[in-house]
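Q: Give me a backbone?
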Amino acid sequence: MRPPRSVTADIRRPIARALDVALEATIVGSFSRVGYLLRRATQEWGDPPSARGRTFLVTGASSGVGRAVADGLARLGADLVLGGRDLDRLEAVAGSVREKGVRARTWRVDLGRGADVDAAALDLADELERLDGIVHSAGALLPHFTTDANGVEMTVATHLLAPFRVTWHLADRLAESDRPTIVTVSSGGMYTQALRLASLEMAPGQYRGATAYARAKRAQVVLAHEWSRRWSASGLRSYAMHPGWTDTPGLAESLPRFSRLGPLLRRPDEGADTAVWLAAGGAGTEGTRSGIWLDRRRRSEYYLPGTRPADASLGDELWRWCEQRTGLSAASD
C-alpha cells in the first residue's frame, strides 16, 4: 500500500534539505548544473507565479542570463523593457518575446556612460505606463583597466554605478507598483572578496579583471540590501542572486578555460531560473525581502574568513559612496 502523498512529502523534505546543504558545502556541486538538476528534482519546485499584467525592465537582455530572464518572464505573461547596447540584438529578442503574446520594447543604453544612463533612465521613467520590477543582469568581465568619462574604473561604473543610476531614476515608478521588486544578478565569484570602499576601484598597476569583477559583484549584494532597507515603506523587495556556473557567451569570452567545464555548466535558462522566480514573486510575501539566492533558496553571503564586514554601517557608506560618484542624492532631486 502506497503511503499518503503528505507523508511521502514529509519524508522527502528533510532528505532534500540535507542534500541541499551537502551540495552547498562542496561549491562545485552547488554551482554546477549538477546542483541545479538535483535541487529541482528533490525540492518539488513549482512553476513561478504568473506575471501577467506586470512590466519588468531587464538589462543585459540581448544575450546570456539576461536574455534567459526575459524569455522566462515572458513565458509568465510579463511585458518587458529590454535594455542593452546592441539595438539589432535587442530587436531580435523583442521579436522572440512578442511571439509569446506579451508586449516588449527595446531600451538602448550604454551602461558605461554615466550621463547617457541618466538621460536614458529619465526618458524611460516618463515613457513607461507602469513598472513593477527591474532585473539588473548586464555586465562583463573586463580584462584590461579602463575608465568611464568621469574617470571611474569601468567594472565599477557598469556593475555598480549604472544600476544605482537606473534604479534611482525609476524609483518613483517602482513605488507605484503593488509589489515592486528588484533582482540583481551577481556572481558566485563575490564570495572571494570583501567590500572595502578604499580598494573597490582597482588602480591601473594592480588591475586584475577577475578580482575587479568579484569586488563589484560583492558591492552589488550590499547595494541590494540597501535598496530593500531604504525603500521598505513602498513594499520593495530587493534580492541578489547568482546563477551558478552558467554557459554564456560572456563566460566563453572572458574565462575560456572555465568554459571548458562543458556538461558541468548550466544552461542559461537554468542559471536564470531563480531570477525569474524571484521577480515573479516566488519567494512569497512573508519573510525576507533581500539576501542572496541560488536555486530558489537564500544562501549565506559569507564563506571565507575576512570577507565579512566588521561594521554594520557598510551599506550606508556604500550608498553615500555611490551618491558621490554619480552626483545623485536626495538633495539633487
User: Anything to note?
Assistant: Residues 84 and 247 are 20 Å apart (CA to CA). The radius of gyration is 19 Å.
